[in-house]
Amino acid sequence: MAEFGWNPRRLTAVKPELPEGMSPPGTRGRILHAALGLFAEYGFHGTSIRDLAAAVGINSATLYSHYPAKEDILASLIELGHSGLVAGLRTALSTVDDSPARQLAALVRAQVLMHADYPLLALVANTELHALSPEKAASSLALREQARALLYDVLRRGVAAGEFDAATDPILAGIAIGSMGVRVATWFGPDQPYAREQVADTFAVYALRLVGSKH
Questions:
Q1: Contact 103/62 with Cβ under 8 angstroms?
Q2: Model-level pTM?
């Protein structure tokens, strides 16, 4: 068995990636990519407009012509992260039947793969949301609630159908399962001895065990 190597600084070497087809074209897209790398490395408050402009190769005035404020750049990134996750979860559910066990496994796999494929986006979306004003955070919070609702609905139906342990608390189980997937973004990468599909499949098994699935 390969020895696990924990490298908490690995994320700083990952290339900023956004889901295909979701990043705006041209300079706006370049700004988001540059901001993603800087926000993941230094945090929202540790990154200045000058830093962003320099990373893109433009001046601050040009940057402001695309985004009114630094907060708007962060809001766009966080919304991209959440909308990509919700889309992935809905697609995953559409590929399986109405069995709660299969749906739970599909949801967990989709979440893990999203966090494995776009770790910097997941990191920024989950750790920098607090930096947004309530108005700028509203759309992302609504998307987050949609993702939670998809999971909680499957867990509730699994308990009601007898597929999951009757003692399972859907809310607490959902928090535990969701947290497990979120952490993938902080360690998964090509420097680790696991394939993305292996991690997704294994975490799905863990989730099913957590709720006492009979399947």
A1: no
A2: 0.90
pLDDT of residue 36: 96
pLDDT tens digits, 32-56: 999 999 999 999 999 999 999 999 9
Q: Which residues contact 205 (CB under 8 A, 6 or more apart)?
A: 105
Name residues whose C-beta falls within 8 Å of residue 188's C-beta, 6 or more positions apart in sequence: 115, 116, 119, 194, 196, 199
Largest CA distance in the chain: 60
Closest alpha carbon to 155 in 100, 85, 99, 214: 100
- What is the average pLDDT score of the chain? 92
Instruction: For the chain, list the domains and their CATH numbers.
Output: 70-210 (1.10.357.10)
Please tell me the distance from the alpha carbon of residue 5 to that of residue 15, in angstroms, as a whole number: 20
Tell me the one-letter amino acid at 199.
Answer: V
- Chain centre to alpha carbon of residue 79: 10
Separation CA 37–CA 43 (nearest Å): 9
Can you tell me the distance from the alpha carbon of 109 to that of 202, in angstroms, rounded to the nearest whole number? Answer: 9
**CA separation for the pair 104, 87 (Å, rounded):** 16
